Structures are given as structure tokens and as C-alpha cells.
Amino acid sequence: MRIIAKLLLLSLEEDEEVVLNAVMSALGSFENKTQLKEEIACEKLAFAGMEIDASKRLVYRGEKEVNITFTEFEILHLLARNPGRVFSKEQIYDIVWKESYSGDYNIIMSHIRNIREKIEDNPSKPIYIQTVWGVGYRFNKNISSGL
């Protein structure tokens, strides 16, 4: 726990419980606002040539909006907010579909291919979403986030 502010309290209230409740309420409100600001900051991810706005569920390449499906957005956002982390096809399916899958993971490969066609300059030589052969996929950690 880190100290983010000091509090000096002067009250004419005699009931200590009323004073403590007011203080706790104020501190809770401050904490909620701080968390909200942190969440809003994480809603936009910017990389070289691409921006992902999670709150609006939009992807931009330069100034151009990319037409992307719900599932493609979920996969892209998952990878982009965890640059460098390798996700197996099974992990991607479990997280995006919110259920375990025991069948063919070609659906993940198909979505990755579709995403690459939409966001990569050369989909056959991707710079954003990288394949880790025999393991899964990761977002390129060497593309710096601009935000």
C-alpha cells in the first residue's frame, strides 16, 4: 500500500462514527475515481500505425477505421493488451468465447488470418500478430505503444 495523500480532519461533529463514515465515503469515492481514470487510460492502445479504442470497439490503421467483427476485435484486443505474451489457440478460444473448446482450433487460425488481412500491410509477413510455431500467437512487443 502506498500513501497518496495525507488527511487533516477538523470536525465539530461529536459522533465519531459519523465522522469516520464521512471520511471512508470520501476515500472510497477518491479510489473509485482513480480506478476509473486508470481504466480509461487502458481503453486506448496505440502502436506504430495502429490504434485500438476499446471503449468504442474501434480499430484504426493510420486515420482509416478498420472494419472488424466482434470476435476479431476480442482476439486482437486480447493480444494487443498483452504484448509479447504467447497465447495458445486453446487459451484464445477459452478467453474469447468464455468456454472451453475440445474441437478443431482452425477457427482461431481463420480469425487470425482475417485480422492480419485487415491490419497488416503484408499479411504474409505480419508485424503486429506473430505466430510462435507449435505454441500459438503473440502481439509484437517491439512495436511501442504510443499511449
**By helix and strand content, what is the structural category?**
alpha+beta
Q: How large is the count of helical segments?
A: 4
Q: Strand order across the biggest sheet?
A: 1-2-3-4
Give the number of DSSP strands.
6
The oligomeric status of these chains comes to: single chain
The percent range for strand residues is 15-25%
The main β sheet shows up as: 4 strands, antiparallel
Outline the low-pLDDT stretches: none
Series of secondary-structure elements, N-terminal to C-terminal: HEEEEHHHEE
Quote the distance from N terminus to C terminus.
26 Å
Structural notes for this entry:
With 147 residues, the protein is of the alpha+beta class. It is built from four helices and six strands, in the order αββββαααββ. A hairpin with a 3-residue loop joins strand 5 and strand 6. Helix 2 crosses helix 3 and helix 2 packs across helix 4. The mean pLDDT is 82.
Features:
16% strand; 6 strands; 147 residues
At a glance:
The chain has 147 residues and is an alpha+beta fold. It contains four helices and six strands.
Draw up the topology in text.
Elements: H1 16-42, E1 44-47, E2 50-53, E3 58-61, E4 64-66, H2 70-80, H3 89-97, H4 106-119, E5 129-132, E6 136-139
Antiparallel strand pairs: 1-2, 2-3, 3-4, 5-6
Helix pairs in contact: 2-3, 2-4
